[in-house]
Specification:
alpha+beta, 23% helix, 732 residues, 38 strands, 8-stranded mixed β-sheet, Rossmann fold, Immunoglobulin-like
C-alpha cells in the first residue's frame, strides 16, 4: 500500500494576518532591544528565543495537521453474490408483456450474473469476484448476512457488492447489520431482487406421518397434511403406493388457502421393509407440482405380543376378551382369574397362569396388562404389585387397560400408586356403577372418529354407521369426568352431569406407556349377528396401539423407543431405552450411548442417563438436523450388548419452493448502504453503473499538531527557558 505524507494548515485570512503582524512586530522589537544592549550575546539569544516562541504560537494559531494518505496497491474489486438457495427454483418470473405461461425460475432469471462474459467490460480496470451463496445444505436454511460479512472482510479494495436474491433469508443474523458496516466503509450494495411477492397457486404435501412399523394383515393408518394456496376448494383423489406395487386411493376435498389433514388406511399383506409414496395430482390452477409427493419407509413384521389379563369372576366380558386374544395369531395371552371364594385361582387351559408374575423381571415381559374387576384385597393384588404395574407403564412403555365391573373393586386401586394412571375421575358415591334394563349406547367424540382404535369399518361414514348400530350395554362405570390431558374417544349417548356427557372410552399417555379406560362391560355384545367381526377387531387394535412404542426395536437384553416416530427436520427426538443385565434383571445404572448416523454419514453420540435404578430405563435427546433415514446403534458398556435400528426424519425444507419473494429485504440493504435497486433483465445497466463508480477515496490518517500534547509541552518548556534566561541576564 502506497503512503503519502504532508503538513497542512487549516488557516483563515484573519489568523494568517494576525500571525504575520505578530511575528513582524516581535521581530522589530527584538532587534531594537538587542541593539540597545550593545549587541550582547545573551540578550541576542533571549530575543531569538522570544521570536521563536511567537513564531511557534503563530503556527499553532493556523492549526497545522500531519496528514498521511494510504493508497491501496490492489486493483478495485467488485463482488457479485448470487443466491443459490432452494427457493430460487420457484417459477414465478414473467418478462414484461409476456403471458404467465412463459414464467421462468428465479435461478434462471439471474443466471446471466454468473456468466464471465457479462463482466468482461469491467475486467480491464476491476477485479470481479463471482460467488454463489446460500447453497442448499441438509438441515439449514438461507443465510444472507454471513456471506456479505465475509465478502466485506476478505475482499481487498472492495468498491461495491452486487447481490441477486429473492430476499428469503431464514437463518443467521439480519443482513441489515452487515449493511450498516458496509455503509461505514463506503461500500454500496447494488440489489437485484427477483421473484414475485404474491403467493403462487400451489398444493404442497407437507407431511406423511407413517408409524415406524406395522403388522402384516393389520391396518396401518397413514395420516397426511396438504397445504393449499389455491383460490378455491379442490377435490382430487390422492394415491398411496407401496414399493411392492400395492395401491390405495381416496377422494379428498382440499380447502382453499388453508391446510387439510386426512388419512388413508393401508393393509400390508406381507412382512418386510417397504417405502410408501403419496401422490397428490396436479391441479389445473397449480403453478408448482414438484412438492406434490412424499415418501417414507415402514417395516412390516409378524408380531407376537404378550398380554396379561387379570380378573376376579369370569364375567361375560372377560370370557369373550380371552377368546379374542387367544385366537389372535399375533398375541400370546396369559390369564389370571382370582375368583374370590375359591381356595386357588381359576383356570382351565394353557392360557392360565397360577399366580401374578413374581417380581419385575417376570412382569416386565408383558406388553399390555388388562385389569378387570379386581382390587387390593386378600387373594388379589397387593400394594407392591400395583407399584410394579405403574412402573412398567411409566418406565418400560407397557400398556394398561382398566375394565371395571359392577362390584366396584377398582376403587381400592385408587388408594395405591395406580391412582395416578386413571384417566378419569370416579364417583365414590356410586361404587357399583349404573345399570338399566334398557340398552345404552356409545357416541364417538370428534377425536374418537379420527382414532384408529375406534375404526371398525374402512371409511369414516361406514364407521359411524357401525358404531350407531352396535348393540348397547346395560351397565357402565361410575365416571364423573375425564382428567386433564386425557383423550376421550366415546361418551355415553344420553347420560350426563355438570361436566357434560359421561366419558366411557378414554385414553392417556403416562410416562412412556399408554392407559385405556373401558367404562362398560358390554363390548362382548358387539358379536350379535356378526360374530367376532367388530369385537375381535377392536381389541386387536387396542393391544397393538398400546404395545406400539414398546416394540419399535428390541433385542435380547435391550429395547429402544422414541417419540415422535418420524420427527420433522430440527425437531427434538426423545430416546428411551430399557436395558437388562446378563441375568435378565433391569440394569441398575451404567453407561448407555446411542450413535446416530444421518444420511450424510456424520455420526453423533447421544448419551442416555438412567432415570431410576429399579427400572433399567435410560433417556436421552437428539435433534434431527438432516432429512432421511438415520441409523441408530445402542450400546451398553457394562453388558456389552448392542442394538441396531433406524428412524426416518421428514425433510420439510427450511425454504421450500413456491413461497413469495421478499424484495423488501434487498431494498432495505440498498438504502442502508447508499446503493441502488436494479432489475435482473437489465445487465447492461448494471455493468454501466459499476463502471461509472468513482474511485474510492484513500484512507486518510490525520494528526492535529495544534492541539497535540507534545506541541503544548514544547511551548511550555520554551516559555520556561525564556523566563529563566531573563532572570539569569538580570532583566527581571
Amino acid at each position: 500500500m502506497n503512503v503519502s505524507r504532508s503538513l497542512v494548515f487549516l488557516w483563515t485570512p484573519w489568523t494568517l494576518a494576525v500571525s504575520v503582524v505578530a511575528v513582524v512586530v516581535v521581530a522589530v522589537v527584538s532587534v531594537i532591544a538587542w541593539r540597545r544592549s550593545g549587541y550582547s550575546r545573551s540578550v541576542g539569544l533571549l530575543e531569538g528565543l522570544r521570536l521563536l516562541l511567537v513564531f511557534s504560537a503563530a503556527l499553532v494559531l493556523n492549526q497545522p495537521e500531519w496528514v498521511e494518505e494510504f493508497h491501496p496497491e490492489e486493483r478495485p474489486a467488485i463482488a457479485v453474490l448470487v443466491d443459490a438457495s432452494a427457493s430460487m427454483d420457484t417459477r414465478d418470473v414473467v418478462a414484461a408483456g409476456k403471458p404467465a405461461s412463459t414464467a421462468t425460475t428465479r435461478r434462471e432469471a439471474v443466471a446471466g450474473l454468473l456468466a464471465d462474459e457479462t463482466w468482461a467490460p469491467l475486467r480491464a480496470k476491476l477485479n470481479v469476484v463471482i460467488q454463489s451463496i446460500a447453497t442448499p445444505q441438509a438441515g439449514h436454511g438461507t443465510d444472507l448476512g454471513d456471506p456479505l460479512a465475509q465478502t466485506l472482510e476478505k475482499t481487498p479494495n472492495l468498491r461495491a457488492v452486487v447481490l441477486a436474491s429473492d430476499g428469503d433469508w431464514n437463518e443467521g443474523r439480519p443482513p441489515v447489520r452487515t449493511g450498516a458496516r458496509m455503509r461505514q466503509k463506503g461500500t454500496p450494495l447494488l440489489a437485484v431482487p427477483v421473484g414475485s411477492k404474491a403467493q403462487l397457486p400451489d398444493l404442497e404435501l407437507i407431511s406423511l406421518d407413517l408409524p415406524t412399523f406395522g403388522v402384516a394383515g393389520k391396518s396401518v393408518r397413514v395420516p397426511f397434511t396438504i397445504n393449499s394456496a389455491l383460490p378455491r376448494d379442490y377435490t382430487t383423489t390422492v394415491t398411496l403406493r407401496a414399493s411392492d406395487g400395492d395401491e390405495v386411493s381416496k377422494e379428498v376435498r382440499i380447502a382453499a388457502m388453508g391446510r387439510t389433514s386426512d388419512s388413508l388406511i393401508w393393509r400390508p399383506r406381507a412382512t418386510g421393509d417397504f417405502k410408501l409414496t403419496l401422490d397428490v395430482p396436479k391441479s389445473a390452477d397449480e403453478a408448482i407440482s414438484d412438492n406434490n409427493r412424499l415418501q417414507a419407509p415402514i417395516s412390516i413384521r409378524e408380531e407376537k405380543l404378550r398380554v396379561l389379563v387379570v380378573e376376579s369372576y369370569p364375567r361375560w366380558e372377560y370370557r369373550y376378551l380371552r377368546n379374542a386374544l387367544s385366537r389372535d395369531p399375533g398375541v400370546d395371552v396369559s390369564c389370571l382369574l382370582f375368583h374370590p371364594g375359591l381356595s386357588k385361582t381359576g383356570g382351565g387351559n394353557k392360557d392360565y397362569i397360577k399366580q401374578f408374575p413374581a417380581g419385575l423381571d417376570e412382569l416386565s415381559k408383558y406388553d399390555v396388562v388388562f385389569l378387570g374387576d379386581v382390587g387390593v384385597e386378600d387373594g388379589q393384588l397387593t400394594l407392591e404389585q400395583c407399584r410394579l404395574l405403574k412402573g412398567i407403564v411409566e418406565h418400560q412403555a407397557s400398556g394398561l387397560v382398566f375394565m371395571p365391573g359392577w362390584q366396584g373393586r377398582e376403587f381400592s386401586l385408587l388408594e395405591t400408586e395406580l391412582r395416578d394412571l386413571f384417566p378419569v375421575v370416579m364417583d365414590p358415591g356410586q361404587p357399583g356403577g349404573w345399570g338399566s334394563r334398557t340398552a345404552n349406547h356409545f357416541e364417538l367424540t370428534e377425536f374418537g372418529r379420527r382414532s384408529l382404535l375406534t375404526k371398525l369399518a374402512d371409511t369414516q361414514e361406514d364407521n359411524m354407521e357401525v358404531w350407531e348400530g352396535l348393540p348397547g350395554f346395560q351397565w357402565y362405570a361410575p365416571v364423573l369426568r375425564a382428567k386433564p390431558g386425557a383423550d376421550v374417544l366415546a361418551v355415553h349417548k344420553d347420560a350426563s352431569n355438570d361436566d357434560g356427557r359421561l366419558p366411557l372410552l378414554v385414553t392417556r399417555t403416562f410416562g412412556a406407556g399408554k392407559v385405556l379406560f373401558m367404562g362398560t362391560d358390554g363390548a362382548w355384545r358387539w358379536r350379535k349377528g356378526v360374530e367376532d367381526k367388530y369385537h375381535y377387531r377392536f381389541w386387536g387394535q387396542v393391544v397393538r396401539w398400546m404395545a406400539y412404542q414398546r416394540n419399535m426395536a428390541k433385542g435380547e437384553t435391550m429395547r429402544v423407543y422414541y417419540t415422535p416416530d418420524q420427527p420433522k427436520l430440527n425437531q427434538t427426538l426423545m430416546l428411551r431405552a430399557n436395558v437388562m443385565d446378563k441375568g435378565g434383571e433391569p440394569l441398575k445404572g451404567g453407561e448407555v450411548t446411542a450413535r446416530i448416523t444421518p444420511p450424510s454419514g456424520r455420526s453423533e453420540l447421544a448419551r442416555l442417563t438412567a432415570t431410576g435404578e429399579e427400572w433399567g430405563e435410560f433417556t436421552g435427546r437428539y435433534t434431527a438436523t438432516e432429512p432421511g433415514t438415520c441409523k441408530v446403534t445402542l450400546f451398553c458398556k457394562e453388558t456389552g450388548a448392542k442394538l441396531e435400528t433406524s428412524f426416518f426424519v421428514q425433510g420439510a425444507a427450511a425454504e421450500p419452493v413456491g413461497k413469495p419473494a421478499r424484495p423488501e429485504v434487498l431494498e432495505e440493504l440498498a438504502r442502508v448502504t447508499n446503493g441502488k435497486v436494479l432489475e435482473a433483465d437489465k445487465l447492461d445497466q448494471i455493468v454501466q453503473l459499476l463502471a461509472a463508480l468513482p474511485e474510492p477515496p484513500p484512507l486518510v490518517r490525520r494528526v492535529p499538531l495544534w492541539c497535540h500534547p507534545a506541541v503544548a509541552a514544547g511551548l511550555v518548556v520554551l516559555l520556561g527557558v525564556f523566563w529563566v534566561g531573563r532572570k539569569v541576564v538580570g532583566l527581571v
